[in-house]
Amino acid sequence: MVTDPLLGRLVDSRYEIVDRVARGGMATVYVARDRRLDRRVALKVMHPHLADSPDFVARFRREARAAARLSNPGVVAVYDQGSIDGVAYLVMELVEGPNLRDLIAAGPLSVKEALGLTAQVLRPLGAAHRAGLVHRDIKPENVLLPDDGSVAKVADFGLARAVTEVAQTTTGNVMGTAAYLAPELITSGDSAPRADVFSVGVILYELLTGEQPFNADSPVQIAFRNVHEDVPAPSSLVPSLPAEVDGLVADMTRREADERLEDADAALARLREVVAGLSPSELSARRGGATESVRTLEVLAANAEAARQAVRADAPGDGEEANQGQTSPGVRTVSLPIGSIGPDTRTRALDRQALGDDQKTTVIQSARTVLARRRTLVGAGVLVALGGVAAGVWYRLSGPGRRVAVPEIVGRTQEEAQSAITRAGLVWGTPTRAYSDTVVSGSVISCKPPTGTAIPIGQAVTAVISRGVEQKTVPDVVGRTEQEARTAITGAGLTVGAVTNDYSPTVESGRVISSDPKAGQSINHSSAVALVVSKGRRPATVPDVRGMTVADATAALRKAGLVVGTTTEDYSDSVESGKVISSNPAAGASGFYGDSVSIVVSKGSEMVTVPDVSSMKQDEAVAALEAAGLVVKIEHVFGIPFISSLSTDPAAGTSVRRGSTVTLRVV
Fold first, then answer.
1. How many CB atoms sit inside 10 A of residue 649's CB?
2. CA distances to 586, 601, 605, 629 from 572, in Å
3. Each residue of 326-380: pLDDT tens digit?
4. What is the pTM (predicted TM-score) of this model?
5. Are the beta carbons of 603 and 656 closer than 8 angstroms?
6. Smallest Cα–Cα separation from 340: which of 161, 178, 192, 199?
7. Are 475 and 492 in contact (CB under 8 A)?
8. Cβ neighbours, 10 Å, residue 130
9. Which positions are catalytic?
10. Structural domain of 498
11. Statement to judge: residues 279 and 241 lie in one domain
12. 311 within 8 A of 321, measured Cβ to Cβ
């Protein structure tokens, strides 16, 4: 085994690499310790042999930009980016736990579990869609499940695109994972929020049934079936599923994009409608039962340790996944020719290198944690079942009509719940109110005694009514230091999102320029507030504008972030009229964006007129010529005795440059 040369290395004098956790087709993921903030982070380092590829470098940058735009607890945060030995890296939030693929491998989930996880995926996608982003590679590998039991997190925005951005490249290929690609992405490359909804619909099908809708020998064949076949109803494999769940899957995976739910928010609202209409028995429906799920999970647990050892071992030199041989064609990120899946096009197999396998790498948690969760659920189900049997026996022994079960009122409006309680012969107690992230305002969150409990007729039932999602007001942090802003945001009951840096001509370095959302806005308590912190004034260097026209000099200064200040004129024998003689500050001087630079513009050479000195004495003539800015050269010419006269060359009245030499002839 070859030791990874990056283990133990200190990156950017800050991130100490302590362990390698995963290796994919594009990058290797390490656990690192951020010495500055004393926290564990994930360090994603691109493979060196891909550093010269503009496409792969662009994916790294796109992932950082997309994550920075989304301040949502359901999105894996990107903290920093840079390069090490010329190779790009990202510093990301470390999510310690399995991904959704690991959970699916343990066996199908119940309707309640599947819909709950789907809702957790739709929430951050809704934030992305509202921000104008389409993920384009939603799949179970890109949904991480923190082992602390918090909400699922969507990762890998490397293929994300703005809704208004052209989807395909000049090569005519579209990147994505075949099993989850929407038909319009395959046929035309169109990117829209509906494409992500299709992917989540396929995941929901897989959570319910334990398998993908379509299977084939290659990604192209799977993509072909996505285009030409409807996703089957999950009840074809799980007959106990209610029709409402089939309808939800169908609404999310319709082949015609215009007939599909328009975005993640619409899909989440539709999901909540379905949940509100299902009974407890319908929510507990599961393919194969709990026993089968536990057995499947035990197999997963046995394989997990081997998978972790393989991750830490040296990966193949060609950059493929160490466990690539176990990856099905439907879960690899591939490049497919746009429009190649048409009615007149054959299904074409692509070789492994052509597929460009870049399945998202994740931090794989020990499957024992997942096993414990699922066993807890199974154990709770057994206890509930036993309790139900005991309650039934007790009810029969007590005589009919003496007791009645509390009706299902969770999720109903207060009026509907009160009516149901009254019809059951029970008393509607004075309700209490509480905030809820999942139950709409005015509907029942829970009740006491709980639903299904057998209680005497006439007993009161007290419900908890939802106030809706708790709202918090964003504090004004502009002008404060970053630490002061963080304290104010957490003190307001919110969390700090992405923190980016930018230059500012007015805000001092280290202080907040702006926040998103802005101060005073009311937002969900689970939302994060992104900050832009000032790096101070942007530096600028004065360009050399000597010899340029005024227009060219002005353009050059503006390009450098400077402006033209005072413009003066002066004579110059060396600089052509209308062009710059000099600047102040001079060329090469350091300044800041917005500073002004004064320039001196040439008027050309200064001209003077040779004065008439013919009637003057020699000394007077010399003085007059020099006063005119000329250099005098005296030349004696012999003439008529006792007669003295003066003349100049050039002659009097001639226009010459100041400083020119004039010959004074003395006769």
1. 13
2. 18, 9, 5, 15
3. 345 555 555 555 544 443 323 233 333 333 333 332 222 333 344 444 444 434 4
4. 0.49
5. no
6. 178
7. yes
8. 14
9. 137
10. 471-534
11. yes
12. no
